[in-house]
């Protein structure tokens, strides 16, 4: 899989997971913040080599769900299992030690540092014995270059500050980094939300690449088109509960879009707007068009 000679979490790759069993599983899981029940009765499975998409409107509970899996929050109801064993993480570090890595929208990078330094941020390689130990710059550059190429990411110059990369490229570096450091489960919180059409396509491509390397990917998005390009399973949250959980074979893009868009709510809005002068409701879509159609729609789903 990856070159684990240098990977601190590489040990987990051997894994004791039963073959074909889910890496991560939620059974009737929920979370309350004080009186606020943000999540309730959620079943979810993350399997190796598959992309599980979590969709839902703002406030639906997507972030709460992945914060439980990545160790930021603890569930307050139901079960949470990793490799079939119940777990309750105190910190993200504990999740990481089991190979669960999250990439958040506000990426934890240092914009002015070179790409290769950011790749190894917090896990720098060193050479030589104490007290003359120093950074092994050559090996870090070489490893970062190789790992990025493995994922199909070719950057002209790893010396350039990561802040000069596009948002899509930075997401890709973060994905390659997680793969290198031994992630088995990769959680991406709305990685395409702030991106344009072309850059979204690039990120979708690397989601597919991570899946093809055998990772279980959790892809959070509110764009059903993006989800459908790479997804194997779709879980739609509404007001903290699972509204839909379907495999790709069970649902088409149109139906998924309808679930996401709240078709009935839109019809009501259309009716109201029909009373307003100057609004041509005939021009309104039947369903809310959430698409940012990606240029090469075949790209992500190779
Ligand atoms: N730390 C928190 N304290 C209290 N309520 C929260 C907290 N985080 C989220 N919530 C509430 O939980 C619900 C789900 O939020 P969230 O998981 O962020 O949804 P999403 O990511 O789908 O937009 C919302 O009603 C939100 O206000
Ligand atoms: Mg969120």
Automatic annotation (TrEMBL):
Coiled coil: none
Provenance organism: Streptomyces pluripotens
The protein's name: Sugar ABC transporter ATP-binding protein
CDD domains (UniProt xref): ABC_Carb_Monos_I
Keywords: ATP-binding, Nucleotide-binding
Domain ABC transporter stretches: 24-264
InterPro entries: AAA+_ATPase, ABC_carbohydrate_import_ATPase, ABC_transporter-like_ATP-bd, ABC_transporter-like_CS, P-loop_NTPase
Pfam families the record matches: ABC_tran (PF00005)
GO molecular function, one term: ATP binding
Lineage: Bacteria, Bacillati, Actinomycetota, Actinomycetes, Kitasatosporales
């Amino acid at each position: 899989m990856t070159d684990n000679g240098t990977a601190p979490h590489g040990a987990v790759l051997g894994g004791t997971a039963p073959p074909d069993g889910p890496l991560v599983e939620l059974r009737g899981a929920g979370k309350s913040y004080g009186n606020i029940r943000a999540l309730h009765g959620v079943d979810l499975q993350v399997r190796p080599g598959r992309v599980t998409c979590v969709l839902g409107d703002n406030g639906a509970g997507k972030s709460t769900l992945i914060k439980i899996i990545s160790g930021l929050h603890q569930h307050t109801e139901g079960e949470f299992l990793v490799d079939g064993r119940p777990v309750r993480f105190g910190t993200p570090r504990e999740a990481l030690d089991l190979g669960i890595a999250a990439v958040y929208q506000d990426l934890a990078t240092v914009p002015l540092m070179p790409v290769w330094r950011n790749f190894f941020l917090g896990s720098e390689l060193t050479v030589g014995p104490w007290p003359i130990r120093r950074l092994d710059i050559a090996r870090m550059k070489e490893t970062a270059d190789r790992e990025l190429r493995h994922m199909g990411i070719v950057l002209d110059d790893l010396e350039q500050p990561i802040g000069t990369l596009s948002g899509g490229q930075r997401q890709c570096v973060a994905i390659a980094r997680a793969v290198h450091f031994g992630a088995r489960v990769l959680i991406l919180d709305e990685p395409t939300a702030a991106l344009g059409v072309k850059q979204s396509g690039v990120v979708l491509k690397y989601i597919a690449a991570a899946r093809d390397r055998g990772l279980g990917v959790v892809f959070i998005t509110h764009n059903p088109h993006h989800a459908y390009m790479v997804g194997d399973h779709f879980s739609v949250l509404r007001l903290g509960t699972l509204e839909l959980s379907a495999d790709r074979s069970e649902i088409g893009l149109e139906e998924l879009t309808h679930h996401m868009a709240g078709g009935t709510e839109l019809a009501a809005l259309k009716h109201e707007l029909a009373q307003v002068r100057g609004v041509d409701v005939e021009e309104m879509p039947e369903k809310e068009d959430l698409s940012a159609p990606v240029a090469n729609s075949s790209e992500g789903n190779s």
